[in-house]
C-alpha cells in the first residue's frame, strides 16, 4: 500500500499531462485561444506540449520521477500564474475546470516530489 499511493499519484499526473497534448498538438480552438491570449501562440503552445510530454514520461520512469515532478511544478506553476494574471479562472465558460485541474496537478506533483525528496540529486 505504501508503494501503491506514490505510483497512483504519478500515473494520475502523467495522464493529466499527456491527455492535454491532443489539444495542444492539434491546435484545438480552446488551446489556440489560451496561448493567443497570453501571447505565446503557436510556439508556446507547442513547446509547452513538448515539455509536458517529457514530464509525463519522466514521471513514469522510477529513476526520473523527481525530475518529472520538478518539471511539472514549473510548467503548471506557469499555467496557474497565467490563469491568475491574464486568463482568469474560467476559460470559455468551462466553469474553471482547467484552473482546478492545474491546481490539482500542481499539488499532486508537489506531493510526489516530497515523497521522492531523498532521490533528488544536485549537480
TrEMBL record:
The keyword Transmembrane applies. It is found in: Membrane. The chain crosses the membrane at residues 7-23, 43-61, 66-84, 96-115. It is a multi-pass membrane protein. Its main location: membrane. Keywords: Membrane, Transmembrane, Transmembrane helix. The keyword Membrane applies. Pfam families: DoxX. InterPro entries: DoxX. This is DoxX-like family protein. It comes from Aquimarina litoralis.
Amino acid at each position: 500500500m505504501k508503494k501503491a499511493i506514490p505510483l497512483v499519484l504519478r500515473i494520475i499526473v502523467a495522464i493529466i499531462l499527456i491527455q492535454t497534448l491532443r489539444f495542444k498538438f492539434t491546435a484545438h480552438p480552446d488551446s489556440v485561444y489560451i496561448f493567443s491570449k497570453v501571447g505565446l501562440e503557436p510556439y508556446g503552445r507547442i513547446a509547452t506540449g513538448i515539455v509536458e510530454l517529457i514530464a509525463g514520461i519522466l514521471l513514469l520512469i522510477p529513476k526520473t520521477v523527481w525530475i518529472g515532478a520538478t518539471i511539472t511544478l514549473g510548467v503548471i506553476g506557469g499555467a496557474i500564474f497565467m490563469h491568475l494574471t491574464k486568463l482568469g479562472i474560467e476559460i470559455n465558460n468551462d466553469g474553471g475546470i482547467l484552473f482546478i485541474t492545474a491546481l490539482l496537478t500542481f499539488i499532486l506533483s508537489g506531493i510526489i516530489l516530497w515523497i521522492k525528496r531523498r532521490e533528488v540529486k544536485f549537480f
